[in-house]
Write a structure and sequence with these properties.
The chain has about 325 residues and is an all-alpha fold. It has 13 helices and no strands. It has helices at about 5-40, 65, 75-105, 110-125, 125-135, 145-150, 160-185, 190-200, 205-230, 235-240, 250-260, 265-320, 320-325.
Length: about 325
Amino acid sequence: MRTPRTTGAGRLAALLVSPTLLVLTIVVLYPTLMALNESLYGPKGLDAKTGFISDTEPFVGLRNYTDIFTQAGGRFWNAFWNTTLFTVVTVSLETVIGVAMALIMHRAFRGRALVRASILVPWAIPTAISGLLWKWIFNADGIANVLMGHQVLWTADGLAAKFAVIIADVWKTAPFIGLLVLAGLQVIPKEVHEAARIDGAGAWARFWHITVPLVKPALLVAVLFRCLDALRMFDLPYILIGAQKSSVETLSMLAQNEASNVRFGPASAYAVLLFLYVFLIALAFVRLLGADLVGDLGATARRTGAAGRRHRRRRTATHPVEVAA
């Protein structure tokens, strides 16, 4: 049964959320609907029915989507697999390296502030500038080939170009995951590790059974953000390798290339499919890991409290006078 108090709270909540919903409608929903509408039209050109040049975009229905599953869709599937490959490989490497960075930044040692600042510098550099820096490194006479001792055409179209994009992206965005994981490490009570150390747990056991479960919520959020960002990768391969390079062309690059050639219908279709791809990945991520995330928060909080209580009881038994004081 609704009461005046709950009704008033509901109205207040709706009033507070309405600006956010308005902004999302303007910047997300409206462009998506416009892209969906544009994807139902073909490019201007010769009208097959009349034989005349058409000044308007002809309505083609779902043909821009069905062409993807024919021979004409080979470029789309190449971009799709490139996007998926870059997402899986870069996010996996960034997670491992980011966690290692967080553990290093979390330790207390002389010069820790300088180390933290130097680790975060790559993430602070704009992606366009980062792409130019790595393009100089991967030049034919760049430092990468000098260190390797032989020439590799990193910025040409081929497998080396994929490695160049992966290396540059991991270098830039691994600190982002490290920063979020570091925030999770800093809220772990020290007494939890002290209690585990007294119980005889080694460094690896403490990391795997204490650090990882307690930092898992922050790590999952970082991985989700990086997955969504990597699926929309455009500027780094575009600047580092170049446009229309099949080995590194992503869905965002494909849509931009079609739009620049005044093929707005296919470009909108690719953009809609990319939106659906990102949406499904985000939805699957939240559905599969969202409940576990909440459960982990509650479980880890209970484990933290239990470990702290055991530690205090142990201190009470061994140093009753100190604890009483």
